[in-house]
Amino acid sequence: MIMAACYLxxxxxxxxxxxxxxxQACAKGAIRMEEDSEGFRxxxxxxxxxxxxxxxxxxxxxxxxxxxxxxxxxxxGGYHKNAVIRDASTSGGAFSxxxxxxxxxxxxxxxxxxxxxxxxxxxxxxKKELALFRKSKYSQSRMGSAYADAKRFLKxxxxxxxxxxxxxIAGLKSYLRGKEYENLLTVEVVCEGVPSPLYIRKFADYIRxxxxxxxxxxxxxxxxxxxxSSPETTTPGKWDFQVMRLxxxxxxEIKKDRWFNPFWSVWLNHLMSRPSCYECPFAxxxxxxxxxxxxxxxxxxxxxxxxxxxxxxxxxxxxSRQGRTAWKKAQEHMFGRELDFPTALxxxxxxxxxxxxxxxxxECMADLQxxxxxxxxxxxxxxxxxxxxxxxxxxxxxxxxxxxNLTQRLKNTFTSGK
Length: 418
Ligand SMILES: Cc1cc2nc3c(=O)[nH]c(=O)nc-3n(C[C@H](O)[C@H](O)[C@H](O)COP(=O)(O)OP(=O)(O)OC[C@H]3O[C@@H](n4cnc5c(N)ncnc54)[C@H](O)[C@@H]3O)c2cc1C
What we know:
single chain, alpha+beta, 16 helices, 13 strands, 33% helix, binds flavin-adenine dinucleotide
């Protein structure tokens, strides 16, 4: 069998997911992460400390990809029954439902938190602090000592819920060297890759120059609906219209429309993703984690009953026995139902394959290093098409759902009147 080349030997950026498993595996502290000119982090060995034990290479998920789940999947769509939690989550709040039911006692939860523009992994031992992990932070999370901490807790017999991107979960599994733990539940998000942090830094420079204050927080997918204070509220949400909410040091808030926000255009045209994302082996039907969570894209087309007044919906894919058992309990916190996997897959590109390379990426990345925010956007961001704006603001998901509801009502009246 030919072994894949490890980044530590090849220095090929495609060979490193940036998961930091090697850093944590090194007993001598001989490996550190360093940013390259594109802003992505890679391991660097200090030869004066290295004793050539090889543990770093053995823990690398690129060289030793974990065994993936190929069992039959349990697929579910829906949203959290508590409107406050749903509103505070990215999709339908499925992550919170899992935490609420799985984390009973003697548990610890790992996830990604934001500190200003930085994103890193940490753990909490009280689910009341779960808000820290809610909301997708669209930047690669730094692992720090998360794998080592998780392993320590697992050995102590704690129930460990570890969440992250698919490559984070692969990193954890390689770090654990394939050992299975009954007290471990892994939850991954569907992932379309991570963008270069250079863009957001340029954006932060621009905000400081134009508003005279530092950008200290970003909510990438803020729903901007009327404040939801009651768990039972049925006020329509604004999931289709999520905006980017910026918080400045001087307390000011800025909201940027989703469809006119150049960040999404540059990133989602795959002009600034991490090199390994263009060949990601985890973007497939066979998954690493026990549970995969995503947005229920296509909800208005194939399961309009789960739209829930535009408040956000989750896709939940249980890939293993542990995943199915966990979800069967979590389900009690959700409105929803089982879905057909092939249909759900049609609307989930990142579960079918990795992102396609963009031949202009190198040029865009060079501009990210040399140009300012406005110059970058002028050259690389596309304006929304008239068709998209029509779909979003004139005739789109909400109207299709309205029509569907009307048809259902008419059908019911017709059949009950027979
Ligand atoms: C980088 C990234 C790309 C994504 N791409 C897609 C996509 O293409 N299609 C799709 O359907 N869904 C995608 N998602 C997933 C989606 O945005 C939601 O995170 C997911 O549906 C869970 O939402 P929720 O409402 O259940 O819970 P929430 O409570 O909002 O979810 C929070 C979960 O996300 C994790 N998380 C947040 N930021 C990060 C991060 N930077 N790195 C690792 N984990 C993080 C937290 O640890 C926690 O587990 C992506 C998420 C991320 C972070």
